[in-house]
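FORM 12-B: Structure-to-Sequence Request
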């Protein structure tokens, strides 16, 4: 059993719940690619079986979010999970649009204090909840696109954000507000795309049963973002390197019509890197 489920996570449900449901449905190990907080909704790709061994190969994928930010108010957690703290003005659409270009490309971002980052063996959110000061180092993240979609309430605006892995949307809300001379927090979040997985093909986990789940299982070879290479030389599948004309890099490997896994070409030689089927 190997492949991916493109699951649409509902609000109020944890990512762990979705993964555990997938394990029960498929009766095999499963894992998700990029957690979503319980308050968030959207695309949650879940790998099944040997597909869970591929998460490192999806790290460079971009994600797309629709997020709502409130201004003139904030919270300790930078989302709706803690009480409101008032302070600052609500910016205009024009002021927001003028500030957005500074958040394109590679930027420095300090993660939220209430996050799962490890600090001296403890989760940052555990330290923050205990009242201890948490100083997190800034990290570089990539923002491909940051667009204002419109105003949704007197103090709330909706944005579309395309970004690389490791980006905290809550931190974007905080930092955009600070650039505008006010305070802000993320009031809603929806992930509409994660790499090749998008909302158009996502399925609600409650629609899945043991009888129909295989109909929604996406083949690993169909979603791996790699070029394909077909090799029938059996020496390769017995651990030997073989000559190749393929350019250096990583490939989806097929033994005839059958998907095998991953192979790496380097300096005119090809070797298997990971068996998946």
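FORM 12-B RESPONSE
SEQUENCE OUT:
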């Amino acid at each position: 059993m190997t492949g991916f489920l493109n699951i649409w996570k509902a609000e109020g449900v944890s990512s762990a719940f979705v993964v555990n449901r997938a394990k029960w449905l498929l009766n095999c190990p499963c894992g998700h690619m990029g957690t979503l907080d319980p308050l968030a909704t959207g695309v949650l790709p879940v790998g099944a079986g040997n597909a869970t061994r591929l998460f490192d190969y999806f790290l460079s994928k971009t994600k797309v979010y629709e997020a709502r930010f409130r201004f003139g108010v904030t919270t300790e957690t930078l989302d709706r999970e803690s009480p409101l703290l008032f302070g600052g003005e609500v910016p205009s659409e024009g002021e927001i649009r003028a500030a957005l270009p500074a958040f394109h490309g590679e930027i420095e971002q300090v993660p939220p204090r209430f996050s799962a980052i490890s600090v001296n063996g403890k989760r940052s959110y555990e330290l923050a909840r205990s009242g201890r000061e948490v100083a997190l180092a800034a990290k570089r993240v990539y923002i491909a696109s940051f667009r204002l979609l419109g105003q949704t309430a007197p103090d709330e605006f909706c944005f579309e954000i395309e970004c690389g892995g490791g980006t905290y949307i809550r931190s974007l809300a905080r930092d955009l507000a600070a650039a505008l001379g006010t305070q802000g927090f993320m009031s809603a979040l929806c992930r509409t795309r994660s790499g090749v997985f998008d909302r158009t093909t996502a399925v609600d986990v409650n629609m899945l049963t043991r009888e129909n789940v295989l109909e929604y299982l996406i083949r690993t070879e169909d979603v791996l973002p790699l070029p394909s290479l077909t090799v029938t030389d059996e020496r390769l599948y017995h651990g030997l390197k073989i000559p190749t004309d393929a350019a250096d890099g990583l490939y989806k490997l097929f033994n005839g019509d059958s998907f095998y896994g991953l192979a790496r070409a380097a300096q005119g030689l090809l070797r298997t890197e990971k068996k998946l089927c």
